[in-house]
Amino acid sequence: MADEDLAHKVRELGDIDLAALLCLIGREHCIVSTEPAYLDDLTAELELVASRTFGLSSAVVDCTPSTTLDDLVAAIQIQLPRPAPLPRAPLPLHARGSDSYFGTHGGSGISPHVSSHIHQHQHVSLRPPSSRSPSAAAASPSKQPSLPPPPPPTQYQIANVILARNLDAAPKAVQIQCLELMRTRRIFTRTAVQACPKQFLLVAVLGSESAGQARLTKHLNDHFYISHWQDPEDGFAHVDEEGEGDEDSIVDAAVYDPDSIRDEDTASQASSASVVRRTRNSKGASTPIPAPTPTLPTHPSSGQHISRTDWAVQNQSSPPADTNSTTSRAPFFTETDISTLSTLSLQTHVDIEVQRYQMNIIAFLRLHRAVAPGSVPPVATTHFRALVRALAALHGLDFATPELVQLAARKIYAHRVAVVPAEHERSMQWGSDLAAVKALLEDVQPEDVVEDVLGMVDVPL
Could you tell me which Pfam families the record lists for this protein (predicted)? Predict the structure, then answer.
């Protein structure tokens, strides 16, 4: 039953949600890119994915050529909420001359000798106090008011999801520091060492025309797990949903003047049928729906129920609750779900024929004439195997299929494969014509190379 619930959750996720989920399962990181004009929408979408889908905190690092290491460290840390102060218990106060603290209702419960000794001290305490100068009284520590305890120091931690926007424009030192953060899951500051939380994901948010054009420094680029290019025509699900929700709230939340409601009640009822509302699942205008008729606020003592749609009438100073906040909704995917999928991926069986198919794809990629030497590193092979198992777990399978291998190859090698320059193409050493080689490699993208290899390698039956 739990596996069926997880499979149902997975089917409801979008492409960007799935890319983040795959990285969280494998404790890896990814590159997400789109057209440069839609980079703001992609960043907002990733923030909503982190908060709504997984319930994780996020931090955006806007990288520029002038970004320093201190800027990076300051941007990836978020402030932890201060704990609520503990209530102070009141001290027991006893009136002078009352029963002893250790006494009972029936008697004092102490010996007469001790009782007479206490009465003597009480008698002495009734003496008038000695006269002291005002300066001596002010200097007495018993008369000083107690100061409140100092507030606890502000604490910071690294966010669960770091969105490194335009990371390719950052200096090489900043990119190397990001690589160190990905590998060791910690970062060194001037005063301490900050460790990453258990659920940690670094996303390079880049603007490019395709997944193969999103590039970083060599070692950082190879260390990223997968890459995903979001087509703007496919939209951004969470951003579009939030925008439709804002439009619905603007149409629905109408503030009425209590003094003019009685005079305009007839006119408002007559115009209510002409209100057109947009549904969340439709792009255009839906069927006209009568708007709710405003009601007058009643006195709290009358006991009459006030409709929820009349919040603006009964209390205009209190805004409605924010339904898009992370505190008002539970995450769609919990940490337990991610741990379960990770365990299922480790238990996935990969047949020997499927393993041979993976190795053939890797060999054909390295020997392809359009691939630059060294652009298919060994770490990509490790990621390739892990992604095939994770995809099988997401599809509810306990074994890997050739189709999953093809899907994993497209996500693993799109950002790694580098097209060789025509001058260094291997056939040039045997006297090939440079113009012919340039014409052959013209407009060849890494995605084209991967598709070419997948078409050449025989698929196991």
Answer: AAA_lid_2
- Tell me the C-alpha distance between 160 and 50, whole Å: 8
CATH of the domain at 381: 1.10.8.80
Phi, psi (deg, nearest 5) at residue 229: -110, 120
Q: How far apart are CA 452 and CA 365, in angstroms?
A: 9
pLDDT per position as a tens digit, 309-345 = 333 333 333 344 343 444 457 888 899 999 999 999 9
Whether 417 is in a domain gets the answer yes
- The domain of 220 spans 13-79+155-240
Q: What SS3 state is found at 284?
A: coil
- Count of domains in the chain? 2
- CB-facing half-sphere around the CA of 2: CA atoms within 13 A: 10
- Residue carrying the six token digits 């777990």: 393
The answer, yes or no, to whether residue 123 has pLDDT greater than 80, is: no
With H, G, I as helix, E, B as strand and everything else as coil, classify residue 162: strand
Q: Which residue has the tokens 């979001």?
A: 230
List the beta bridge partners of residue 162.
59, 202
Same domain, 371 and 232: no
| Contacts by residues 231-238 (CB-CB < 8 Å, ≥ 24 positions apart) | 231/34, 232/34, 232/35, 232/37, 232/38, 232/41, 234/15, 236/16, 236/38, 236/41, 236/42, 236/44, 236/45, 237/14, 237/16, 237/45, 238/14, 238/44, 238/45, 238/48, 238/49, 238/52
- pLDDT of residue 185 exceeding 70, the answer is yes
What distance in Å separates the CA atoms of residue 142 and residue 403, rounded to the nearest whole number? Answer: 81
Judgement on whether residues 75 and 190 belong to the same structural domain of the protein: yes
CATH number for the domain spanning 171: value is 3.40.50.300
Determine if the pTM surpasses 0.90: no
* 8 Å CB contact between 76 and 162: yes
The mean pLDDT of the chain is 76
For residues 273 and 292, the answer to whether their CB atoms sit within 8 Å is: no
Give SS3 for 156: strand
Helix (H, G, I), strand (E, B) or coil at 228: strand
Final residue of a structural domain among 203, 219, 240: 240
For residue 331, tell me if it sits in a domain. Answer: no
Reported confidence tier of residue 4, pLDDT bands at 50, 70, 90: confident
Q: Do residue 73 and residue 190 come from a single domain?
A: yes
Residue 62 placed within a domain: yes
Q: Are residues 73 and 207 in the same domain?
A: yes
Identify whether 317 is part of a domain.
no
Element (H, E) at 357: helix 352-367
**36-47: pLDDT as tens digits:** 999 999 999 999
For 6-160, where are the E strands, in sequence order?
Answer: 30-34, 58-62, 77-79, 156-158
